[in-house]
Amino acid sequence: MTLSRPSPNRLALVLVTLAGCSSPVVAPPAPTPQETNTRPVPTLTEEDRVTPSECKQAWVAAVTGRVVDGTGAPIEGASVGYCIFADGLSTCLPDVKTNKYGWYNKPIDKAFRCVEKMVARAYSGPTATSNLRLSESYCRPALTPSRGVLDNVTDDVLYKLAAPTSLPGLDDAKKARTVTFPGNIEVTITPDSIVESDQYNYLSAAPLDLATRPCFVPKDLTLDGLVAFAPNMNVAVFSSNPVKIGFKLGTTLPEGTAVDLYVLGGVSTQIDADHAVEEGELAKFGTGKVTNGAVVPDTGSELPALTAVGYKRR
Question: What is the C-alpha separation between 187 and 309, in angstroms, rounded?
């Protein structure tokens, strides 16, 4: 007779004897790797791990990482997607979800493992059980894989944002309306010119603490202010009459200070019909000045997208 090994997921019966009587007790199943507060270990073959001779760039068969909020607390159920750039092309892969400790494990299809650069997008919008408003994250991890695995050592951080203090209704989508937020932040939006106008009612915003230095801010760029918006929205720049987004960003800079303006590239962000902004790139798009305690764009420097907006005195 051949004995088979029981499945590790099968509940084991443990006999407990107390004061002369016995009672069967069900022992809990052993936690799987995704249920423990440790970095996941991708399941790869030796062939997966070895860089093929024809790949002259980084070989990435899997990526691991973690998503946290601004306090460092893990975010369960956040979505994480990677866009891969190689040979002048970009491919965005399906999202994965984080576990209860914020960890994720993303396998990469064999066709896209030879990588020139990568961008990770992490996001977590309001749900049926939570009205938590969080920024989105676009990070470019350093391409330093070890035997096919890129362990992203820098957490993807989603910062807490605030609901509007004033959110006009959507009665006339062709009409511009001003949405206000705490901190003297305003945006003037024409919903008909926004690709993701169905997300209008979830608009959120807040200034970010520059001391935390979000991953998308280049090391050689010193900003004077940074405001994040969510959900990310884009102006329909290819439409017949696109209307960009007016804005005011509260600031402590002196009155009349001239500033350069920067926008974070999100999904399909375009400054105009001829100039795209890559995901994770913080690109200069215009100029402005401080008026009545807020940064206001110069004419022609209105926002092409609601992602994150930075400014730096000129």
Answer: 12
Cβ(161)–Cβ(202) under 8 Å?
Answer: no
* Residue 289, pLDDT above cutoff 90: yes
Q: Contacts from 166-172 at CB under 8 Å and sequence distance 24+?
A: 167/201, 167/203, 170/197, 170/200, 170/201
CA dihedral (254, 291, 183, 127) positive or negative = negative
Q: Check if the beta carbon of residue 289 is closer than 8 Å to that of residue 223.
A: no
SS3 string, the chain, reads: CCCCCCCCCCCCEEEEEECCEEEEEECCCCCCHHHCCCCCCCCCCHHHHCCCCCCCCEECCEEEEEEEECCCCECCCCEEEEEEEECCEEEECCCEECCCCCEEEEECCHHHCEECEEEEEEECCCCCCCCCCECCEEECCCCCCECCEEECCCCEEECECECCCECCCCCCCCCCEEEEECCCEEEEECHHHECCHHHHHHCEEEECCHHHCCCCCCCCCCCCEEEEEEEEEEECCCCCCCCCEEEEEECCCCCCCEEEEEEECCCCCEEECCEECCCCCEEEEEEEEEECCEEEECCCCCECEEEEEEEEEC
How much is the average pLDDT of 95-121? 93
Structural domains in the chain, sorted by start? 37-158 (2.60.40.1120), 177-313 (no CATH)
**pTM for the full model?**
0.82
17-61 pLDDT, tens digit per residue, is 334 434 444 445 444 544 678 888 999 999 999 999 999 999 999
What are phi and psi for residue 198, nearest 5 degrees?
A: -70, -10
User: Phi, psi at residue 268, to the nearest 5°?
Assistant: 60, 35
**Pairing label, strands 246-250, 294-297:** antiparallel
Residue range 245-279, pLDDT digits in tens: 899 999 999 999 999 999 999 888 888 888 888 88
